Amino acid sequence: MSGNTNMKKTNASIFIPHLGCPHECSFCDKNAITEREKSVTVTDVESILQSHAESLKRRGITAEIAFFGGTFTALPASYRAELLTTANRYINEFPDLFTGIRCSTRPDYIDVGILCELRYFGVTAIEIGSQSMDDEVLAANNRGHTADDVRDACRLIKSHGFELGLQMMTGLYKDTPAKSLFTADEFVKLSPDTVRIYPTEIFEGTRLFELAESVESGYKTFTQEETVELCGEIYGKFVANNIRVIRIGLNYSGNVIGELSIARYYYKRMSAFMESSGSNKFRVLTDKRNISKINGHKCENKRKLEAAGFTYRIKEKSGADLEIIAL
Known about the structure:
Layout: E1 8-15, H1 30-36, H2 42-59, E2 61-68, H3 77-93, E3 98-105, H4 112-120, E4 123-131, H5 135-140, H6 147-159, E5 163-170, H7 177-190, E6 194-199, H8 207-213, H9 224-240, E7 244-248, H10 256-277, E8 281-286, H11 291-295, H12 300-307, E9 311-316, E10 323-326
């Protein structure tokens, strides 16, 4: 790509209905979604990307063209080729704005032939919706694949030079905090470039909704507090291994869970350091983008630390994550 390689990046997202998805997982009512959403046409893609191109140029940022929403590699090959050909044309037409193509799919719809096709059409990143690395959880939620399928798909994707993304869910049927932490640890072993963490949200019309309504099933997803604590710990595992966390929580939920989880991660780091330091006054160095995360949602972290007898002042340091100096 020519131009400014230091430009900020985002996604030019194109959401496709759940066409091609071979299973109805416990958390998804794909039939209702597909009935509600029309299939994306080449004209739709052109319109979306033209609009994004104008916005990106105005804002001075770049984007990957991202096909999300369905099992992309399970789409009919001719339809998939139409979408990718159109996306690739926009990359060639706007090389300073569009940097590549990413798609999301299932681990059991990855093979050498598919990867060669995606490479031919200019795909640069593949995200695998694994959801869990515990086989009991996968089976209980009708995923239709195993943890070993995820491992095999990841090895193939990386061996063909694609950026690898992994997606996990917490709080599914038969899941426990320990199993979610196990999934995070297994993800780390697979060395993905990016991850997404999705706490389970239960929607009417899904099997999870039926299970949650049934006394006999014994199923209740994690509470918000359990989710924040768990996702904060999972986030820390990925950060410690230089794996970029793209998102915690679904887009349309306002992502408050994501904010709370990351704030919890910072609170635990600060609290542990301050309690062991022998001091009660500190200077915190961090990049300005982290200040609100460190102070916590509505300054909750700052209030809790002050209640424990600790005070701190933040000083901006470009590129810094969290550096604490006892005074």
